[in-house]
C-alpha cells in the first residue's frame, strides 16, 4: 500500500477519534464552567439585592425617625401658636397617625394616605405593639412599612408602596454583578406572599426573602434572570466541537500535504534511485535528492554506505585477483558462482563459462568436492576443511584445498569459498629436503641424525644387537693428495661395497667424515664377526684410479655387542663401539675389536667425555682443590722446604676425586691448559696470603704438555705474579720429560723466558721416555725428578741402584739437583743417602694433604 494511504488511514483511524474525544471533553468542561459561573453570578446578584434592600430599609427607618421627631415638634408648636404645617413627603410615601387607644385609631396625615388606608392595613398595625419596620403584603400590594412611637402613646406609620418604578430603581442599584442590568426586568407581580402563588422550581430568576413587618408572613422578591447571556454563551460554545474537528481536519490536511511533499515524494524518489542501483556495476552513482535536512542526512548515509560497499567490493576483487591461489565461490548446491583469474588460468575456464556448473565438473581431482561441501554445511562449527588433493590437470599437480562457509548478512549460510593452492614445487622441495635431511649427499646412506632417529625402533624387539662403529684407514691421504672430490668418490665406492656385502641386512649410515655406523640385529657374536670381516674385505678391495694413481682404504671396526632385551640405549652402545674402534685402530689396519666393559683402559676412554665435562664444570664453579705433598731435602745444604702442588676435584656430595680419573680426559680434550691456569692462580693466591713462608718455601707446580708454549701462557703467569706480588724463587714449574721432548722448541722458548723472570724448573718422570743426556744438557732445568719405577726397588735391585746413581752423577756434573719420587720406606731413604740424592718425595716422607691444612702454618698460627 502507498505510504500516503497508510498515513491517511492512520489519521482517520486514530486522529479523528482522538479529536472527537477532545471536542466532547472541551464541550463538557466548558458547560460545567458556564453553569458554575451562572450559579455564582446568581448568588452574587442575590447578595447584592439583599444588601440594597437592607440599605433602603435602613434609609427608610432613618427618614421615618427624623420625620417623627419633626412631627412632635410641630404638634407642640401648634398647641401653643395654633399653626403647624407638616413637611412634605417624598413621592410614594404615606404617613398615618396610629392611636390604638381610640376607636378610630388610624388617621392619614396626607391625602394620598387616606386613599390608601384599608382594613387590612389596620389589622396589620394591630399585630405590632412597638417600634417595627419591614415589608408586608396588604390587599394584593407589597409595602415597606415603619412604625415610630410618638407622644401620647400614639405612633406614626410610614408606608411606601413597592411600585414597578421603585422595583426598577431597586434592581438597577443592585446590578453591579457580572450580569448586566439589561437582563433584569420586573414581572407583573414581583411580590408574592408564599411559594404556592408562584412556580419557584420552574422559575429561572432570583428569589430573595424580604424582612417581614411585625409578625406578618414573609414575602419574597422574585427578580427575573434574563436568558440573553446564557443563550449567548450557549450559542458561543455550540460550534466548539465542530470547530475543534474542523481545525483537526485542517491540521491533518496540512500534515498530509507536508508529509507528501517532505516525506512521501522524497521517499518515493529515493526508493526509485535505490531500485535503479546495479549491484554488479563497476561504478555506482551517488544518490541525489532534494529534500529536507533529515532526508539529506539519510542520503548522505546511503551514499557513504554505497561508497563503503563499493570500496569493500573493489578491495575484495583486487585481493582475489592479486593472490596467487585459485579461489572458487559456490552456492549451497555446490554450483560455481565465481572464479578468480588464477582459478581461470589453472582450470582453463572463464568465470562466466563456469557459472552455474557443478564444482566437480570443473575441478577434476582424486577426491570429490561436493561431498566435502555438503559435510561442511551439515556441521555446526565454523572451521575450515583442509586437505591435500591431486589435481588431474594437463600436468598433474598437488594442491592444498581449504573449504570455508560463506555467510549472508543475516548469518545464514549462502555458499562456500574454496581456496586451492598449488604446492607441487613445495612438495617436491620438501621431499628433497627430507631426503637431504635423512640421507647423505655423497654416499646415499642414512646420515647421522636419521640413523640416531631410527636405531631405537630398529632394535626394539631384537634378541641380540651389534652396533658397529667403522672408520676408514688411509682416507685422509686421499683427501690431502687428490682433493675432496676424489675423497667423495672413494666414499661412494665404499658405501656401494658395504651395501653389496650387507645385502639389505642391518641399518647402515654415514656418521660423518670417513666414519660409518652399522646396526645388526639377531646375530650371534661370531656371526656378526664373520659378516664384518666380509665387509672389511669388500671395502679394502675397492680401488680408486686418479691421475695414474691407485688408492685403496682399510677399515677399522669397533663393535658393542649385547644379548637380551635388558641393554643400554643405542647411543650409549655407539659410544662403546667408538671406543672399541680406537682400540682396533691401535691393533693395525682392517681390525675388529669388541668392546669389553671389564677392560680398564676402555672404561677410561669411555668415561673421558664425562670427565671432560666435569672438569669444565669444576673450573667454572671453583671446585678444583689444591693438595700438597712435601719434598724433603736429604742434604744439609737443602735448606728451602719444597711442596709439590697436586690437584683434586670436590664432588657436590663431598667426595674428593683423585687425578687419575680426570687428568687423562683433560689431556685428551685439550683442557689441561685451563686446569694449569686455575692451579697457578690458586697457588699464587695461597702464597700471597702466607708471606711468612716466602723466605724458606718453594711450591712445585706441574705444567702439562698442552701448556708448554701455549699462546698466552707466559703472559698469564706474568699477570698473576704481578697481581699477587709473589717472589719468583717461591715457584718451581715441573714439566714431564715426554712433553718437553715432543714440544722441544716451544718448551725451550718458554723455559728461557720464565727463567729470566726468576722461576725454577724441574724435569719430571726422567728416565722412562725418550730421555737422553743430550736433551738434559740442552734443557735449562734446575731439578731432575727420577721416575719412581727406578726408586721403588732401589734398596733391593742393583740395576736400579746403578741407574739412579748414574742419573744423579750426570745431573750433579751439570749443576742440576736430583729428586727421587715414590720413596715409600726407610731402606730407600738410606740408599738415597748413599747415592747423594738431594731431595726425596713419597709416602715415607709425607702423604698428599689439603694445602689449607699445611701444618707448619697451622703451628705458626697457634704459636
Automatic annotation (TrEMBL):
Domain PAS: 312-396
Keyword Transmembrane helix attributed: yes
PANTHER family: DIGUANYLATE CYCLASE DGCE-RELATED, DIGUANYLATE CYCLASE DGCP
Tree of life domain: Bacteria
Gene designation per UniProt: pdeB
Cited InterPro entries: Biofilm_reg_signaling (IPR052155), EAL_dom (IPR001633), EAL_sf (IPR035919), GGDEF_dom (IPR000160), Nucleotide_cyclase (IPR029787), PAS (IPR000014), PAS-like_dom_sf (IPR035965), PAS_fold (IPR013767)
Keywords for the protein's UniProt record, in alphabetical order: Membrane, Transmembrane, Transmembrane helix
Gene3D superfamilies: 3.30.70.270, EAL domain, PAS domain
Protein name in UniProt: Cyclic di-GMP phosphodiesterase PdeB
SUPFAM superfamilies reported in the protein's UniProt record: EAL domain-like, Nucleotide cyclase, PYP-like sensor domain (PAS domain)
Segments forming domain GGDEF: 463-597
Domain called EAL: residue spans: 608-862
Transmembrane segments: 7-26
Gene Ontology annotations of biological process type: regulation of DNA-templated transcription
